[in-house]
Amino acid sequence: MMGRHKAYRSNPNKRRRIRFVPQWLEKHAVSDGEQLPSANSVNDPEALRELIHYTAEGNVIAVRLLARAGVNVNMTDEDGWTALHYAADEAQRDVARLLVEECGADSSIRCQEGLSAADVARMDGNFDMEKLLNPSALSSSSSPPTSPPARFTSSTPSTSSQESG
């Protein structure tokens, strides 16, 4: 296991609370007076390995903690895959949404094979994930369609009802 669950007690009479701390974050913890690094500023290969692990596992809390600690969510591994590629490959929709909406992950980054995260999702048959990750689908879904699709504008239903009646 990469991270560690730490028990901490503020009052011995209360139930013990457990908090999860990713290993990299524990090792590079910011002391109380220091500020967190800016978003996507930490380019540590060890942090990337842990980010990818928690992304593929679907651990939203660990991914959020690492991103808030400044880990670059757009960093690529040796194959050119980002954490978003792994989220798409493992169908981790909640983590993908977190990476895109809160952490500023770039869904247009392509790996060495030329695949974006949306392409990986489409290859796996995960079309909901593809819609989430495809930048053109996001921009077109924000504006309402100007006219109904062609299948709804045809007069086929009315003519078929006249023929049967």
From TrEMBL:
Superkingdom of origin organism: Eukaryota
Gene3D superfamilies reported in the protein's UniProt record: Ankyrin repeat-containing domain
Do you know which SUPFAM superfamilies this protein is assigned to?
A: Ankyrin repeat
Give the record's keywords alphabetically: ANK repeat, Repeat
Which residue intervals correspond to the ANK repeats?
79-101
Q: Which SMART domains match?
A: ANK
Q: Which Pfam families match?
A: Ank_2
Looking at the record, which segments are called Disordered?
Answer: 132-165
- State where composition is biased (Low complexity): 135-165
Entry's InterPro entries?
A: Ank_Repeat/CDKN_Inhibitor, Ankyrin_rpt, Ankyrin_rpt-contain_sf
Question: What name is this protein filed under?
Answer: E3 ubiquitin-protein ligase MIB2-like
The organism's lineage?
Eukaryota, Metazoa, Echinodermata, Eleutherozoa, Asterozoa
Q: Which gene carries the instructions for this protein?
A: LOC110981922
